[in-house]
Specification:
By secondary structure, the chain is of the alpha+beta class. Helices cover 33% and strands 33% of the residues.
Length: 148
């Protein structure tokens, strides 16, 4: 999908200031939005937990993410400093945290990964399509989850 010039300049702040707080609030109310997940990283400077709304990329014991801003994204810089992360995914009426180890895959094609993830899941497809609008230098992140 091709976005008009300047779309990133508008969509980035819109996502940070409006969409992400709404998604975090929905998780706090235990009403997660279909297609969304929550990523917990450890702050590289503070050591505190940091929560980032992401698209649900669960595929068995692997969780896939595409960082819109590549390695410049704060959550990517956090997981590079400490690769132990947790993801909270919706599982039927309940959501649960799963721990794992994250790594950036430089050789992976983020657009192809997004296409693969969007197959057969309308909510995930919507999340991935809207997040793709702000891509500047995307990179794929793979999280190998601990056994359930």
């Amino acid at each position: 999908m091709s976005w008009p010039p300047g779309a990133r300049r508008i969509l980035g702040p819109f996502q940070r200031r409006l969409v992400n707080p709404v998604v975090r609030f929905a998780w706090a109310l235990r009403l997660p939005i279909p297609g969304d997940a929550l990523l917990e990283t450890t702050g590289r400077r503070t050591g505190r937990p940091r929560y980032t709304p992401v698209c649900d990329g669960l595929d068995g014991d692997t969780f896939w993410l595409v960082s819109q801003h590549g390695r410049r994204a704060d959550w990517v810089r956090n997981l590079e400093a400490d690769p132990r992360v947790r993801v909270k995914v919706r599982g039927g009426p309940h959501a649960r945290w799963r721990g794992g180890v994250a790594r950036v895959l430089d050789g992976d094609d983020p657009r192809e990964r997004q296409r693969i993830l969007a197959r057969n899941n309308l909510a995930r497809r919507f999340c991935l399509a809207t997040s793709g609008a702000a891509w500047t230098d995307p990179v794929t992140v793979r999280i190998d989850l601990d056994p359930a």
